[in-house]
Amino acid sequence: MTPLPDTLAAEDADLVSAVDALVARHGSARGELLPLLQDLLADRGEISDLAVQVVADRLGIAPTEVQGVVTFYKFLGTGPRGRHMIRLCHTLSCVMAGARDVATTLETELAIPVGATTPDGAVTLEWANCIGMCATPPALLADAEAFGDLTPERVREIVAAVRAADVPG
Ligand code: FES
Hints:
The protein is globular and about 45 Å long. It has helices at 10-26, 33-44, 49-59, 63-76, 92-96, 99-110, 152-165, and strands spanning 84-89, 123-128, 140-142, 145-147. The chain is 50% helix and 11% strand. β3 (140-142) and β4 form a beta hairpin. It binds FE2/S2 (inorganic) cluster (FES).
């Protein structure tokens, strides 16, 4: 199992504290993995790579097992989903290339935070792990279409295209 880093950024330390609080509430039995992840998702709006690692560490199981549940759960859906999904990669290459700035532009354009769905039910915005566009970061998936080399202007175009394609149910 990959050891956790010795020093953590404040944001990451906050995440570790959140996981520890949930483990204190649920216990560390393997059977608590899913409820623990559900609460973590509700609390944080996402389950990051670090969260996967910390949960695995605290429950004494392999990160791949945790990741498997997270992936399965994402496809099941974790709340109201929009008619369209925008998934912004937050794995290393994309973060280094400015994924957080892209997230800010997306949040402004859609007027929702990452992890939420627009009030009209059109778009859900969420983080994703690597989507295979590492050569052109930052990158996102808009429904099934991948976009790389994102700039604020490009992001605005993508959001406009998604909105234009939307047919309210
Ligand atoms: S790291 Fe973002 S697409 Fe691979």
